[in-house]
# Entry
Amino acid sequence: MQRSLPGCQTADMTYLQSGTGSAHITMAATPSPAEIRSIVEHDPRWAAIVTRDRRADATFFYSVKTTGIYCRPWCGARRPNPANVQFHETAAGAERAGFRPCRRCHPDRSPEDREHVARVAHACRALESGDETPSLATLARHAGLSPHHFHRVFKAATGVTPREYAAAHRAKRVRQALGRDGASITDAIYAAGFNSSGRFYEAAADTIGMTPSAYRSGGLQAEIRFAVAQCSLGSILVARSEKGICAILLGDDPDALVRDLQDTFPKAALIGGDRAFEQMVARVIGFVEKPDAGLDLPLDIRGTAFQQRVWQALRRVPAGKTVSYAELARRIGAASSIRAVARACAANTIAIAIPCHRVVRTDGSLSGYRWGVDRKRRLLQREGGS
Ligand SMILES: [Zn+2]
# Structure
């Protein structure tokens, strides 16, 4: 039902007739209808709201008491009842008054911000193409910003620096190219978009931590030393590459553990550990018996970028605590990837040092464990967890 107010003939008043339809002011200390009329007629801000005038952008913001939201003058949202409206000079002022930004007109983003998002997207495309990573100065010049400012804007929009972005993208191309069956490493270099093998090897060393041929040949070209021993959880196999511990396997049958190691590193030269190695194994066993003491040995953690994120997050779960797959997924910023997180946990080859035994179902029940649920239960009991 439309309600017309006597004496309202200006265009500014149309919203009163077609808007919420309520001209009754019931709140205490709010203007009377006559006062509202006067405000609307004389305040040019209302003219901007009524005509959705983009030229008024950022000259002021308005909030609506009944929705708790604030908007830009030109927002396409339903026109508010002036009795509920408050004006703010800045978005920050509206937020201080307790209002949330509208999802439609994004009053919390400055026009520069919106412009910056477009420029960052453009820079991302530039970083993804070709083998020469554009310099910060070049990227900034294309974006029309100073290098310092561009760096800050890029990081704010993507969460990483331009250099990190380029490295992550190159890593992806290297892995994809090397993963292609039958392609030679030379083919892979060009398929990944690199013009020179030198740059490719540099990128490979940066991103997959080894030479392309080592990656191809089953992970580790270098020797892996290993030994099998006994601990309170049964048989334990400890293996170490040049870089650090690359496997801690648990089980009942020592031979099965060695076969598991061979399957995990099919091309590596497996060498039985010597006396010095056995001292290292003793330290690992000490850690397995008392995990909260920590393991003071380097790990050689190999896996996809996603697996590495999951495993790093697991390493931050302290002894005595458990975490659900869903929570772990949330912690690495991949809340919808719960199955992939569970698969990454199951693919862990470094028992206890990457504590996948601290992952339980959301309801607290144990779920699976690569090395047997019974071992998982004993480990958790030992750590005083659930
Ligand atoms: Zn809005």
